[in-house]
Amino acid sequence: MNIIKRLQHAIKNLRSTNKSQSIALNNLYKFLGIEPDLDERVLADATYFACMKVLCESIGKLPLKLLKYNEKNGVETARKHPLYSLLHDRPNPYMTSTSFWSTVEYNRNHYGNAYAWIQGAGRHMKLWILPSEDVEVWWDDAKILADQPDLYYLYSAGGKLYRFGSEEILHFKSSNTLDGIVGVSVQDQLKSTIQGGVKSQNMLNKMYNNGFTAKTVLNYTGSLNDANVNELVRMVEAYGKGELSNEGIENVIPIPLGFSLNPLNIKLADNQFIETKQYTALEIASAFGIKPYQIGDYTKSSYASAEAQQLSFYVDTLLYIIKQYEEEITYKLLSPHEFNDGYHFKFNVSVILRADLATQIDTLSKGVAGFIYTPNEARAMLDLEAKEGGDKLLGNGASIPVELAGTQYIKDATNQTNEGGGKNNA
Length: 426
Description:
- With about 425 residues, the protein is an alpha+beta fold.
- Helix content is about 45%, strand content about 15%.
- Among the domains are: about 195-275, no CATH class; about 355-425.
- A three-stranded antiparallel sheet has the order 2-1-11. Strands 4-3-8 form a three-stranded antiparallel sheet.
- Helix 2 packs across helix 4 (about 95-110).
- It is extended, with a radius of gyration of 33 Å.
């Protein structure tokens, strides 16, 4: 079977499978009372948007560097490698590194998976983000797409279907996955919770539009036909909503003689609206791994400093995400020969763990005095130029190698013995 027939057969199976799955999911959502089209309005929830913003900007602000282990067991930046500028500066002609990785992180969270096509190789390599909703991941164990079983990515665009092998796509998935291949999005995990947040915000918006006027019961004696009742109700609502404010009528509702309005007051406090909304926000933030203070909730903040907050966010949330990025990029973009030579990609997390200037200088000074940094290495961390003679390790003159520790006392004891013996002989 040639590749065209294989693809046609795959498309037919894909469409039939997707159609049956879509019907089953819609029926399940309706049974659970969940709206199937929630995805289009999920960003209306402020907490969801805030969490997405925090993660996308956090990944986007981290510089991605290509490093190499040298012969001295140290690490140096491989700036001359053709992939350094690609990942660090501009993955493709239309996107900066910041916007590229922010977009990848957005897709990874919102859809559960993010895909980037690797076009070309070496100096001509470019990375292109594929819309996550248009990509299907297939494990071709039946050898429908090729003669060898492999993981394939089918991308549909413009009425055409494109096939990519596993080595042609950078695939970043969410931390929640059932098979280790495809991730599960946060909105699928918390569909009912996010839906409740959207509905609560819509209710609040509606109350604002109504001028916080509650529903009322119009009492009257006598009989009115339907047309008169509808007209009377329409006018009362117009007065209550402030629609006649341009005519100078804002706070008065005229009622005919023999009529009375009895409001059906529904107080937000009585229904614990604020508490419920806050709890929903914390649930959504927890699913993203976002700390409460990052969405404006400081009621239970117990961090000693801003540095402690950033360190907790890095360890608890970003470390897993960053490690996944580094492993996928290193494996897919570097050849086995380059990997064996010590090349590897690494995000510079110091930009989010950076302390204030006084703490930075104090820490670097101790690093230079302790033979950890050369003066020029410490100056580079402060974005200062290198100085002549600054490439040598300096430190406290009282420091000695560990293998010589204690020898000074042996020497002193020998000198004292010799000196004592001379005096006795004299």
